[in-house]
Amino acid sequence: MLGTPNGGSEVADFLQRFRIYRAIYGPAGLQLTTSRPAAFASLALPDCEIGIIAGNRTLDPIASFLILPRPNDGRVSVESSKLAGMADHVTVNASHTGLINHPAAIDQTIAFLRTGRFDTPGHGA
Known about the structure:
Layout: H1 10-15, H2 19-30, H3 38-41, E1 51-55, H4 61-67, H5 78-81, E2 88-92, H6 103-115
Parallel strand pairs: 1-2
């Protein structure tokens, strides 16, 4: 997973009070909040190893400094990206939108697909 708001998005928490947000994003936008619907709790994890890559750089100073806990990628806090039962988690110096093309995120994805762990100090990889 790349920058996935597994624990919800604090930005969605802030924006949900605005009618324009609700009109554009509808019910899906409200499901992005940190107050997760009860149905989410009943979802089982996939039967595979899950690796999560979070970013800690931002292009959005308002969300990053006024709304989101630090560290964050401008849309999702590192803490909110975590998921119970995940096999591994790593943070790279990338923004939310930059994660998909960031060389470190690509290298970490390859490492996880090969070994089931990210290539970080302390993992022995």
